[in-house]
Amino acid sequence: MGDPRTLRKKYETPRRVLDVERIEHDTKLRTEYGLRNTREVWSTLQQLKKVRREARALLSLGEAGKEKGQKMIDRLVKFGVTKSGANIDSLLSLEIKDFLERRLQTRVLKRGLARTPAQARQLITHGFIAVNGRRMSAPSYLVSVAEEPSIAYFKPINIEVKDAEGSAKPEAGENTHEAAMNMPGMGKEHKAEGAPAAAEGSNS
Length: 204
Known about the structure:
40% helix, disordered C terminus, two-stranded antiparallel sheet, mainly alpha
């Protein structure tokens, strides 16, 4: 059978783990984006560091590097991390929030399919969210600009809030049972395909 495969960590532990300012910053991001733990912050930060590292390497090549960097810029534009017309220099000013904003969990919340970041995560991990008709279970899945309009419910669910009298108070957005039932391919089983840049522990 061979030796079990050793999974490589998708993040780097900060040099100063107990730095108060860093802990406060990471905690704020966890709360704002509904992240499961600090490792998800570090994993996203690793993506940002990789882009910055590659951008610096390309800039050191001069004009030749700028031409080679266009492929990387196109990919970041595709996922909405940066805007069209960006250059290599502008990649050095990217922030961690630019990546966190493109997570499936964040986009579900922004589209009104969930009331809170925590609920958005729960809906995804429990199989209630689909992208292009395919059920997705990774909250850290990076949603491309082209895929965003296709984010919808995979199976029926009602997340309306009821008041003290039991009357339903629908939230803004396409988050009703009817919206879910009208989704193309409802009820068909689809497997989530490889989710790029999935953070460690994101499926729970």
